[in-house]
Please model this.
Amino acid sequence: MEEAELGCCVCHERYDETRCPKNLGCGHAVCSLCVQQIINSGRKCPECRRPFYATTAAALPVNYPLLRLSRALASVSLQRGQPQALSPSSGATRSQNDAGECAAHLSRLTQRCITCRVWVCRECVLMDHTLPPEGQCRLLPVRQAINEMKKTHVETLASKVISLRELKTSAATQGGCLEANQKIRNTVAASLQAAARAELDAVKELDAKKKEVEGKVGEIDGWVQGLREKESAVMQATTVRELATAALAARELLNATETRAERERERQARFLGTQLRLGSLDLRGSLQLARTMYVAHQSEEGRRWARLSMHDSFLHLHALQASPPPASAPVFSFSSVRSLVPRDSPSAFLEVGWEGVSQGRVLLTMMGDTARARQFLQLCSGEGGPCYRGTCMFQAERVGGHGEIIRGGDYEHNDGTGGAAVVEGVATGGEHLHDAAPGLVVGAHSGQQHRLAVFGVILSPWSEHKTDTAFAAVTSGLGVLRAAARTQPVTQVTVLDCGIRVPL
Model:
């Protein structure tokens, strides 16, 4: 009789965590598995036929007193050794289909809330976990939840393995880059050692030539002394015979001296024609021997000098200026270094800063040997007179938007109204026609004759737009120019230094 009273009136199964007693509102209870069938078939109590209005089993309250009595009866039956009615959650099957006991409700944890990531019992579901459409919780039985958790963990581990493989590939790539760099450095080091040995051999040769010249100076002094002695003998002659003898000896010595002097002139002419010339190997060797070097340039404006420095295996030829170098610094000819610059894709640099502090170096590579490219290189080196050194960025447009651009290069007025061309043939279109992409360096339109030397650098994409004045591209330092475009006012941004890069 006890078990009949504590069971469902429809299926006659005892109430437990799987079959929770649901109050229908009339005082009668039906298990949670059968109540959905009743809802689907008319929503009337199977005992008194009174209607109820719940549309889902979850909407009906649990009869907790009845559920506790059922649990107590099951416990007493186990203690007395009486067999308990098997249900899907009892006996040996229960340990496989639940996650233990709920500490809050002392019920079996038969489901997992995927949304909240916790194991739940029936009471937990009714009190804290609401299913759609009223709530966001997603419930799965233990077995299905275990499978999904396994799948999630496997996917997480697989994702981490892929990430680690990518990390390994990146590290291997870096290792390859370092190895290639090491080979380049070894080659450069060998070249520098060869250059140093060549320089030492040249020093020895020069020392030998110096001793030879010193000997020639002493020899010429002997010639002069001999002529003076003959002159004295002529002056001391008192008779015709003595005078004739002294004059004959003087003529013979004079002829011999003239022959020797002619040979010395030929030797000196050969010496001037065999002076050392500056080449790439000599330059590497000189860089190994001296940290600071300069070049000298003679033009109509007078004599000017430019500093040489090394950056990333490139020789940087800085802009010419009037200040002479230190007396101890090696000085080469400007033309010998300038001739090492390639014609097909030469490159230049701009040292950009504001508030008197350098913010970084911008590297630019020319798009071929064009008039615009030659003009930019000439204004970076200052070899023609005007120079970008000391000019400011006079305009930044569309900052933060599409087609952002920063402009500079007005060496005349520093405000964008000047900057005339310094070479002939600056054209528009044709080889200068390119998509407006970040890093593209453009110039003024050929119709603006008074400002053809100004330049602009595109800083952000500008889709479906083209420019017909492009002549170079930024290969490094674009971030420096983006920061410069956001400086207020932008005219504070200055080209602190500039020049041409010479590959070694």
